[in-house]
Amino acid sequence: MNFGHADQRTLLVPDGLEGERVDAAMARLFGLSRTRAAELIAEGLVTVDGSVVAKSDRVSAGSMLDATIPSQADPLEIKPEIVEGIKIIYDDDAFVVIDKPVGVAVHPSPGWQGQTVVGHLAAAGFRISTSGAKEREGIVQRLDVGTSGVMVIAKSEHAYSVLKNAFRQRTVDKTYHALVQGHPDPLEGTIDAPIGRNPKYDYKFAVRADGRHSVTHYETLEAHRFASLLQIHLETGRTHQIRVHMSALKHPCVGDLTYGADPALARRVGIERQWLHAVKLGFEHPETGEYVTFESTYPDDLQHALAWIREQH
């Protein structure tokens, strides 16, 4: 087997680990997760006193534990890759504004194997020189993988600090359109409800008393038989904020199965993600101070779903 780079490690089992399972002993001695240790054992890359072992075998003090640990790709490494569908709306020395398609993450993260906005910008030759973790350079805001629309990425250090601060101070005008099930009552209003991680599912969020302050303003643009088209202004920018707040009102975004949308309606409108689009972004240009706005039209899947909803009487 050729592992590229592999780390060969040999250690004697100390008295304190006498009788431990091999996977547990490896995790302790080599600083690995139990899962990773079990994978290496299953691949036959671990021996105790020269013999291949099973993860549930026990180790004795003084035994010689040998492991070949192949190096793993860094999940946060930026892979330059052109992403079909990312449109550049505006570009200057300070920042770039893009139209993000669905299915693209903003930056690399553990567990995400797909395409990223920063990977696209790197491949397209954009120079981004700002502080922050390497994989998040220039990132002053995020959109979910399943949310499309307009977003800004800072290119210079100065623009990064000014824009980061503008988002923090909530002086950026963030406008979204969401197609939600049913008809919110009242037709326009403000949802002020704290959001925190859902204790049952680590990938979901929920309204919780101990969550972070979160405020969403909405108004109804169109009311149809099965759904309403809302215009939403975010005052705060929590992860999944609009999706969690609309779900808490019992009017989840159409297609948002994670947060309680009706799968039958999602199928009928032909949508496989939440109907949520960042339509407009407005802020003061970090260099000139002039107020600038950028807009994005609905992508085809959302347009098609809305057309279906409009036709139902």
From TrEMBL:
Name of the protein: Pseudouridine synthase
Segments traversing the membrane: none
Record-annotated active site: D144
Domain of life: Bacteria
Keyword Isomerase appears in the UniProt entry: yes
Gene3D superfamilies: Pseudouridine synthase, RNA-binding S4 domain
Any GO BP annotation: enzyme-directed rRNA pseudouridine synthesis
Protein family: Belongs to the pseudouridine synthase RluA family.
Keywords from the named record: Isomerase, RNA-binding
CDD domains: PseudoU_synth_RluA_like (cd02869), S4 (cd00165)
